Input
Amino acid sequence: MSDTIEIGQNDLLLIIDVQNDFCPTGTLPVPEGDKVVPPINELSKKFSQSAISQDWHPQCHSSFASSHEGKQPFKTTEMPYGTQVLWPDHCINGTTGADFHSDLETTAVQMIVRKGFRPEIDSYSAFYENDKTTPTGLSGYLSARCIKRIFVVGLVYEFCVGFSALDGRKEGLDVFVVQDCTGTFGGDGEQAMTDELTKAGAKIIQAADIK
Output
């Protein structure tokens, strides 16, 4: 986008899963995932409203490969709600790995959305769990705050950031994904998510596009 976007009272910065386990020393690291922290901190100064999501899994969560005998991380299995990627154990509630990155500025964040805490179902999106029907409560919060546009940043583009953006579009919001404030695994999944976001009408922008 070439036009500058001016932030107003009906806009919200949605920070996705900037947690220790998704950073280089964590159990499910995003390459250079910690590099998104400084630009997110800078961008957050432009917003009067913000929310943050937090993966918050119990031990032995059904999305962990360790919960399925003979299964390895990054393979898939079938769940009642569809195909599920199996992950290394990560973001277990109450652990350091589930904490937000220590340099992430969260003082001004008004809402924390914890997701993935039900043992039987994973949750990528900050709006809905992976069955696409169980809400997190974020939609109601945004409606009560009269939010019309969300600006999505964080970890990781192909999964939790992307699916949050797609669900934001389904909820009727104008959605912007701030590319240089978002980490990615890279590879084919990145382009596939870009195609999905574009088809859904989400816009991919840079932090410099925001006034």
